Amino acid sequence: MSDLTINAPREKDVARAGKFVFWAGIALLVLWVLVPIWFLFVNALSSPAEVTSFPKRFWPSFDLASLQFFWNFQGVTAALWNSVKVAALTMILSIGMGAPAGYALSRFDFPGKEFFRVLVIMTRAFPLPLLALPLAVMFIRTGLDDTILGLALVHTMLALPFAVLITFSLFSGIPVELEEAAWTLGCNRLQAVIKVVLPLALPGIMASAVFAFVISWNEVFAAAVLTIENRTLTAFLLQSLNVSPLPLKFAGGAALVMPALIFIFAVRKYLFAMWGIANR
Amino acid sequence: MAEIVIKNVAKRFGAFTALHSVDLTIADQEFMVLLGASGCGKTTLLRIIAGLETPSQGEVWIGGRRVDHLPPRERGIAMVFQNYAVFPHLTVFENIAFGLRMAKLPQAEVERRVKRTAELMHIEQLLKRYSGELSGGQRQRVAVARALAMEPDVILMDEPLSNLDALLRLEMRAELKGVLAESKTTTIYVTHDQVEAMSLADRISVMNGGYIVQADRPTEVYRNPAARFVGSFIGNPPMNFLPAQAQGAGRWQVAGLDFDGPAAGAAEFAIRPEDLHPAEAGLRAEVRVVEPLGPHVLVTAQVAGQPFRAVLESDHQISPGEILTLAPIPDRIRWFDPETQKAIA
Asked: Where along chain B do its domains lie?
C-alpha cells in the first residue's frame, strides 16, 4: 500500500515528462522542415528591396516583384519547361522499366535473381561525378548530349533502383491467389496483371512515379554537366547562382520547391497507402 | 460431361517429391474429396488439375480432352481458394461478373447469371459492396458464387471452409453440399478435416506422403481402411492397433485372447473404439482416463502395454484404475500386414 502511494505521483510525473519530450520532438522535427521553407516563401513573396534589407520580415509582404523578376529573367521559363519535360520522361521511363522488373522479381524465380537485385542497387554505388565524364563523352559521340532524352536517361538510371524496389515490394504485397483466380476466370497472364494487379498496385506505382519525378526535378549535377543550351532549372540556377541577385535565388528556390511539394501533397494519400495496402 | 482422369501424374520440386505417380478417375458430377494432413500433396494435385502447377510427368484429362498443357482458362474449371481471393478493387457484383465479362457474354446474360448465383448463395443484398466491407463468411459466399456463375464443368475447392469459425463452417458445409449437388458439376474438394470429407463426399481419396492410399466411398474408407494409415487417420478417436501372434491355422493371439484371422503371414489386429463393448470375456484393458462425451464415454486404457481407446455407452460407470474386459464385435475386426501396412482381406 505505502509503495503505491509513493509511486503513483512519480509515475504520473514520468508520464508527463515523456509526453513533453514526445511533443517537443515532434515540434522540433516539424520546425526543422518548415522553417527553411517558410523563409524561402517569405523572401520569394517580398519585394527585392525587402529581401536584401535587414532585419528580415516574418510575414511576406506579398509583393510579386521578386517572382516577376525571376519569371522574366532570361532563360528561366525555358529551363523550367526543360525540367518538366526531363522529369516527366524520367517518370515514364523509370516506371515503364521498373514496374515490369519489380513484377518479375516478385513473381518469378529465375537464376541470378539475387544477383540482379544487388545489381539494381549497384547502379547507385558509383558516384555520379565519376560517371559524368565518360557519360558526357559517350553522349557527345551518340549525339545525346544536351538533349532532353539524354538527361532523362541519366535520371532514369538514378530513379530506376527505387522504382524497381518499391514496385517489387508492392507486387509482393498482392496475393498470388488473386492472379490465379483471374487465370481460372479466363484471363491470361497479361490480362490478369492489367485487370487485377495494376488496379491494386496503382497507388504505390503513383507514389514511386512521383518519387522518380522529384529525383529528376531536384537533380543538379548530371544536368549541369550534360546540358549547355537545354538546361533544366536546377542547372540553370546553379550556373547563374554567383551572378544572380538574392531575390532571384529565393524566387528560384521557391519555384524549385513548389512543384515537388505540391506533387507530393497531391499523392500523399497514395504514399501513405503504400504502407497501408496489406494483403487484402 | 466432365469426367476427370489423372494418369501417372507426379510432381517434383527439386529433390522433394510432392506427388508420386498418382492415378485417379473422377466420374461426371461426382463429389470427390482429397483428404490428408498438410504436406500430403492434396493441394498440389488440385493445382495440377487447375493448371496452376505443371506436373513433372503424367496426363490430366477433363471431359475426354487432354488438358495438362493448357492454361487454366481453357480447362473449363472454376476454383475457390482457401483465402477466397475476392478482388478487393471490385464490387461483389463485378467479382461475380468477372469471368462472365472475360467470356464476353452479353450484359443481360451477365446480369441474369450474377443475380441467380447471388440469390443461390444468399448475397443479393451485398452486390454493391467491396470485399473490405464483408465478413469472412460473406467473402466465402462471393468466391463460391463467382465460381458457380461460370457454370463450369468442374469446380475445384481448396480448403474453402478452413478460415471460417466452427459454427459458420457447419452451416456453409450443408449449404455447399446442396448448391453443388444442384449445379451438377464435378467437384474436387481439398480438406484436412475428416468430418468435412465424410459429410460432403461421394468418394474420398485419402492421401499420404504424395500417394493416394485409398479412394472409396466414405463408409468404405471408414469401415474398411485399405491401409493402416487410413485407419489411424480417419475416425475420432482413430482405430486401435494391437500386435498379434500367429498360432497357426488362421488362429491369432492378441493380448492373450484368440481370434480368427488371416491364413498365414504376419498380421496386426485393428478395431475401431466404438466397436468394443464390455463383456465377460475380452481384451483386458486397464483404464487410464475417462472422458464423458454426453451420449458416449471415451475411455483411454492400456491393453498389453499398448494405448487403447474405447467409446462406450455412457450408462457404464467407469473410473480410472479399473480393469475392463472389452469384447470386439467380430465382423468389425480388421487385419493389417505389418510389413506393407496394407489391409489383409
From this structure: 4-233, 240-344
Rounded CA-CA distance B78/B179 in Å is 15
Which residue among A185, A187, A280 sits closest to B88, beta carbon to beta carbon? A280
At A247, list the grid cell.
Answer: 531575390
Predicted confidence at residue B126, as pLDDT, reads: 93
Integer CA distances (angstroms), A128 to A124, A151, B86, B155, in order = 8, 13, 46, 57
Cβ neighbours of A227 (radius 10 Å): 23
Domain A69-276, architecture per CATH:
Orthogonal Bundle (1.10)
Tally A–B CB contacts below 8 A.
62
- Boundaries of every domain in chain A: 2-44, 69-276
**pLDDT cut 90: percent of chain A above it:** 25
Confidence of residue B339 (pLDDT cuts 50, 70, 90): confident
CATH of segment(s) B240-344 = 2.40.50.140
Cross-chain residue pair A184–B78, CB shorter than 8 Å: yes
pLDDT digit string (tens) for A154-163?
Answer: 899 888 888 8
* ipTM for the whole complex: 0.86
B163 in contact with A, Cβ within 8 Å: no
Nearest chain B residue (CA) to A280: B88
CATH architecture of the domain formed by B4-233: 3-Layer(aba) Sandwich (3.40)
* B72/A contact by beta carbon, under 8 A: yes
Query: B295 at the A interface (CB within 8 A)?
Result: no
Closest residue in A to B79 (Cα–Cα): A184
Does residue B102 sit at the A interface (CB-CB below 8 Å)?
yes
Kindly report the nearest CA distance between residue A109 and chain B, in angstroms.
Answer: 13
- The confidence score (pLDDT) of residue A93 equals 95
